[in-house]
Amino acid sequence: MTESILFRKTRAFSLRNEHIQAVLLKAGGKIASLKKDGNEYLYQGHSKEFTPSQFEGDFGSCDLSGFDDMVPTINAGYIQSGVFSGVHMADHGEVWAVDWDVEEGTDEITASADGVRLPYRISKTLTLKENVLIINYELRNKSPFSFPCMWAAHMLINADENTRFASADSINGIRASLDMSSALNGFGALHEWPQTKDKHGRAYYLDRLGTRDSKVCEKYYFDSRLKTGEIRVENPAMKIRFDAETIPYLGIWLNSNGYKDQYNIGIEPASAPMDSPENAKQWGYSAELQGGACMRWKLEIEV
């Protein structure tokens, strides 16, 4: 069933069955909460109130919690060529910072938002099946012209020092995309997975958080296309599944109190790697939404 509610003092929509409850905000279309038996699986941040966002605002100064959609980029930057050359793509994209149109059905919620500077529309429909949240996405280019574009999930999960995760695919290596603590030798550095060596030659694990006093933060992408599209998490027990043909890349954010005094893991399936279409192009990956194109994919979170 669905119902309109207040969540952290902002307008929200609840979707629940006898097993789980998901909460979606009108603001940014954020999936703010996912609970099973009263246990929260998405990171909630430090504030009891939702922090409103502003378009072109700094993502890091807004509400760092839950599950946001990143379109058409993660890193800010300018389009370098084509019809839309010179257009500025905002920090973490556009749609996290605008209100979404939300429609409630009996057993589903549909939310949609239009691009601000680029002509696209993203829609998602949330349904539940037992203990699984199912999200069906559509991303449509409303113009006849292509433009650089990627989609990525920004899904922050509750985690502790015992949390571990693994891909159902055979993964050997990763490429660093953010290295605040300089442990991974900077942007673009390649490492073995799940264990590598830090800049000092010490063993360094990439499938878990560091200790709470380690004060490190990094992000990386698996350095190959995924075929299965399933990530298994232990503590909390979760499975995250996505259509690997359309969404073949996976970014992982590991924040051990190194950024904003938060302790969480970000699971970030993406249509292109390395946090922006320009970065993806630099490393030989495609990140274009063709004129008139419509991408469709599904993501499932089993708890």
Radius of gyration: 18 Å
Distance from first to last alpha carbon: 18 Å
Helix content: under 10%
Q: What number of structural domains do the residues give?
A: 1
Using the coordinates above, name the CATH class: Mainly Beta
Give the biggest sheet. 8 strands, antiparallel
The CATH architecture classification is Distorted Sandwich
Low-confidence stretches: none
**CATH overall fold name:** Beta-galactosidase, Chain A, domain 5
The structural class is mainly beta
Shape label:
globular
Could you walk me through the main structural features you see in this protein, from its secondary elements to its overall organization?
There is one protein chain. The protein is an all-beta fold and 303 residues long. The chain has a single domain, classed as Beta-galactosidase, Chain A, domain 5. The protein contains 1 helix and 26 strands. The strands form 6 sheets. The protein has an 8-stranded antiparallel β-sheet, with no helix packed on it. It has a 7-stranded antiparallel β-sheet with strand order 6-14-24-23-20-16-17, with no helix packed on it. It has a 5-stranded antiparallel β-sheet with strand order 1-2-3-4-5, with no helix packed on it. The chain is globular, with a radius of gyration of 18 Å.
Brief rundown of the structure:
2% of the residues lie in helices and 46% in strands.
Can you lay out the helices and strands and say which pair or pack?
Blueprint lengths: L1 E6 L2 E7 L3 E6 L5 E6 L2 E2 L26 E4 L6 E2 L9 E2 L11 E4 L4 E6 L5 E10 L2 E10 L5 E2 L3 E7 L5 E4 L5 E7 L10 E3 L2 E3 L5 E3 L10 E7 L7 E5 L3 E5 L6 E8 L6 E8 L6 H6 L5 E2 L4 E9 L1
Antiparallel strand pairs: 1-2, 2-3, 3-4, 4-5, 6-14, 7-8, 9-10, 10-11, 11-12, 12-26, 13-25, 14-24, 15-21, 16-17, 16-20, 18-19, 20-23, 21-22, 22-26, 23-24
